[in-house]
Specification:
By secondary structure, the protein is α/β, with parallel strands linked by helices. The protein folds into 2 domains: 94 residues, Dihydrofolate Reductase, subunit A (3-Layer(aba) Sandwich); 52 residues, no CATH class. It has 5 helices and 7 strands, in the order αβααββαβαβββ. It is globular and about 40 Å long. The two termini are 29 Å apart.
Amino acid sequence: MDETRSSEALLLGRVTYNGFADAWPQRDGEFADRFNTMPKYVVGSTANAARWTNTTVLEGDPVEAARHLREEHEGDVVVHGSAQLVQTLLEHDLVDELRLMVFPVVLGTGKRLFGATSDKKTLRLVDSRAVGDGVLILIYKTGRDAS
């Protein structure tokens, strides 16, 4: 909840956006109210902005769109899920902080969290805590802030 309260906007890939747009508008409570009212930006020209209030579809280059959002918003622009988008943003040094949640479950298969990059990406652990039933929240600074 703290992360959502401090966020100014959401930036999502099309697949994550579609899943969120199916789920969040029907939910109530402080978290849902914040999610539903904050500005949302979705990368992907086939996304339907009308599915969820305060949504803008960003067309064109997602890297340039993310750079523009960073300039436009003073507060945090948060990406949830959206692995392909996060990978692109990491590759172009547009991620200031990674907040990873590690759940105590071994599935045996699945997607890689990080794909190939053109160069080593340094991370520095700045906070960690356990919540709930053994879930770890790990917060890393990236790029220049990681040194």
